[in-house]
């Protein structure tokens, strides 16, 4: 459901007209428009935002873990239309059992490292990503440290020496 605040927003109206139910809901928070997009439509919506609405920069991709709620994760895309000085936040909800969403690196190559960071820290996979390796944690690290169910003490990691 699109909030009353966004009923007269031309961008939101155009996206709802084009993508229908793929635009799940929307609101304004702290002066910024936030739209929830269906996971299966994220790439198409992002392509339209880039090509038809001038959102030529992705500022960040991050995630939220709402454990134990389902869907557990929200992937958050921060977009910027430089010429209009306009910002937009997209959110995609992803379940906790097998968290996966399509990559947007084909839309904005700058999403590459952001998506790798989200994978590394939250364990959300980006289908079609060109380089889905860890970027922050060392190779061999077990788990994803920003998940709310990650042990507070962390996992033991063998840095090449035995720990006792």
What attributes characterize this protein structure?
Beta Polymerase, domain 2; 3 helices; 5-stranded mixed sheet; alpha/beta
Structure description:
The chain has a 5-stranded mixed beta sheet with strand order 1-2-5-4-3. The protein has 164 residues and is an alpha/beta fold. The chain has a domain of 96 residues: NADH:ubiquinone oxidoreductase Nqo5 subunit (Beta Polymerase, domain 2). Helices cover 21% and strands 28% of the residues. The model has no long low-confidence stretch (mean pLDDT 93). The chain is globular. The protein is built from 3 helices and 7 strands, in the order H-E-E-H-E-E-E-E-H-E.
List low-confidence stretches: none
**CATH domain class of the domain at 4-99:** Alpha Beta
CATH topology of the domain at 4-99: Beta Polymerase, domain 2
Q: SSE order, as H and E?
A: HEEHEEEEHE
Largest sheet: 5 strands, mixed
* Topology, number of strands: 7
Helical residue percent?
Answer: 10-25%
Rounded radius of gyration (Å): 18 Å
Number of helices: 3
Quote the distance from N terminus to C terminus.
55 Å
CATH homology-level superfamily of the domain at 4-99: NADH:ubiquinone oxidoreductase Nqo5 subunit
Structural class: alpha/beta
**Which sequence of strands runs across the widest sheet?**
1-2-5-4-3
CATH architecture annotation name of the domain at 4-99:
2-Layer Sandwich
Give a concise summary.
The chain has 164 residues and is an alpha/beta fold.
